[in-house]
Amino acid sequence: MFAAPDNEVSANMIRAGQMVAQQELPSLNGAVAPQQSSNAPTTLDITQAVNRAVQWHPDIAEVVGKLYEQAEGVNVARSKYFPKISAGMNNGMTNASTNSGYNPSFVLSLSQMLYDFGKVDSSVRAAEASVAKEQANVLVSIDTIAHDTAAAVVQVQGYQQLVKIAEAQLEALNNIGKLARQRNDEGASSLSDVVQTETRIEGARSTLMQYQANLDRWRATLSTYLGWRDLKEVSNNFPVPLTKSCQVAQPDYRLIPSVLAAWAQVNQAQANLDNANAQMTPTVSLEPEVTHYLTNNYSNSAVLDRTQYGAWVKVEMPLYQGGGLTASRNAAAHTLESANAAVRNAQLDAQQKLSESQNEEMSLARTLVIQNRQQQLAERTRVLYQDQYLQLGTRPLLDVLNSEQEIYQARFTEQQTISQLHTLQLDCLYSTGFMRSAFALNNQTIQTVEIQP
User: Fold this and answer.
1) Would you indicate the residue range of the signal peptide (predicted)?
2) What is the strand order of the sheet 449-451 is part of?
3) What's the pLDDT tens digit per position in 265-294?
């Protein structure tokens, strides 16, 4: 007689014996998520932001709910290993005996599957594969929320720096404006110098307002990810280990949730194909039954007791169903082919995204070196032009204004490049599956599920 296997699989654990070694998912354990603060900290860094987002965001809670739904599907499939006990009452008339008439009876029946050529086993494996797929989807959701939150922090950090640079530019131009007005009052320069300076000042003020507006927008976006209405100070620190995230020769597909989900889909498709084949084979079951008549109007009531019982070994096999079983088997085979292609596609997509991010990161890193050199040259030019304007009188104010703005334009460009570089490094983390380890999300309970590496 078949019974349920001892090595049960739940939504919270995947054992190596149930999946091919290279397809094993990180185990998910846990029951209670830690209590999260409802108030933003005084200074928020990128790691705190990511941890807060994954503990709060409803997208993860939605996927976790689907995970536990699929876990119950395993219990449903596994229940077919156990006996099915039914009880009921028959009410009706009979003419099967000399005492014909009303003949009610209680019936207690049992059905136990003895051997089914893998029908129940394949159903259980398919259900377990569904759980594995949802586990991978939980990891996808966690990685996505972590990536998007970290990217929002990077944008806030970038615009905070751009606002500071814009404020410094406005202050520098105001100082030049004071000097221009002073020299004009002394008759040492024309009114056009004052007008030109005022024009540059208004342009700098407009730039500052634009950057401040973008900063406010990204702070609002970050607040949405964190579930906090009011954000306080956001730290500009970007952890040094994150800057090395693109230095990966080849991604480890066992760490990438999208690939893990595709592998689980292959397991599910294979189990469904096995089940389709098993449907063409017999099912052997034991079916005992007990009947208790409430009157004497049953067959052979003179010699038989009111309580009667019987037991049968039933062998049942489909002979012809219009080609439906064959079509189901063929469909399952095509699904398996599609699932295998999906694995290759997920691997290719991960490799492509990593390669794109790596190449762009190298280009931006070289660009930063050039921009830094450009900024140094612009600062030297400013010193020379200011000396020529103030002491020798051989340099027009327009050249001084241009040199000043060249410096700050170089700083703006450098900061924008740094923000792009940090965003690419986060993309590399996401593409390689290192997002959880980079932000210390492993061995941590996240919305009732503990993530283990």
Assistant:
1) none
2) 28-29, 449-451, 444-446
3) 999 899 999 889 988 889 899 999 998 888
